[in-house]
UniProtKB/TrEMBL annotation:
<dbReference type="Pfam" id="PF01661">
    <property type="entry name" value="Macro"/>
</dbReference>
<feature type="domain" description="Macro">
    <location>
        <begin position="1"/>
        <end position="168"/>
    </location>
</feature>
<dbReference type="InterPro" id="IPR043472">
    <property type="entry name" value="Macro_dom-like"/>
</dbReference>
<dbReference type="InterPro" id="IPR002589">
    <property type="entry name" value="Macro_dom"/>
</dbReference>
<protein>
    <submittedName>
        <fullName>O-acetyl-ADP-ribose deacetylase (Regulator of RNase III), contains Macro domain</fullName>
    </submittedName>
</protein>
Length: 168
């Protein structure tokens, strides 16, 4: 079972093999964490994403990390669900984002990975529910990844992720 850490910070500066971005289906870049990762990785990230898109909600695809700082070698793009009240399978799609990202990480031989809080920004997924889904899914998904770091952009997200991590 991997070690899971919760931190507040800039995901583009993490000392991990791979970062996950909360992408849109085009993989061409967007706002929030996706925009930050695209800016740090440079224009080749959008070119590579466009070449393999579309990525359906709940799925994940990988590209090189391009200009992101070492040791980051890969970016895994995953598309979260747009929150529509919770009755349209949003929780399962979100859980699939984490499962598929770990499966792609295993295919790449990744040992350490950083995740943002997927779908909690403009996609509107309630952050408290998203934190529980993230932790439950990451704990229950078999993987060879040794370190999973959940990187919160702000203090409130870090607190929600930490509370979910503390519950068993």
């Amino acid at each position: 079972m991997p070690k899971i850490e919760v931190v507040r910070g800039d995901i583009t500066r993490e000392q991990v093999d791979c970062v996950v971005t909360a992408a849109n289906e085009s993989l061409l870049g967007g706002g929030g964490v996706d925009g930050a990762i695209h800016r740090a990785a440079g224009p080749r990230l959008a070119e590579a994403g466009g070449a393999i898109s579309p990525c359906e909600p709940g799925d994940a695809m990988a590209t090189p990390a391009f200009d992101l700082n070492a040791p980051i070698k890969h970016v895994i793009h995953t598309v979260g669900p747009i929150w529509e009240g919770g009755a349209f399978g949003e929780a399962e799609v979100l859980a699939s984002c984490y499962r598929r990202s770990l499966a792609v990480a295993d295919e790449l031989g990744v040992r350490s990975i950083a995740f943002p809080a997927i779908a909690t920004g403009v996609y509107g997924f309630p952050a408290d529910q998203a934190a529980r889904i993230a932790l439950d899914t990451l704990r229950s998904t078999p993987t060879a990844v040794e370190l999973i770091r959940l990187v919160a952009f702000d203090e409130s997200t870090r607190d929600l992720l930490s509370a979910a991590a503390a519950s068993r």
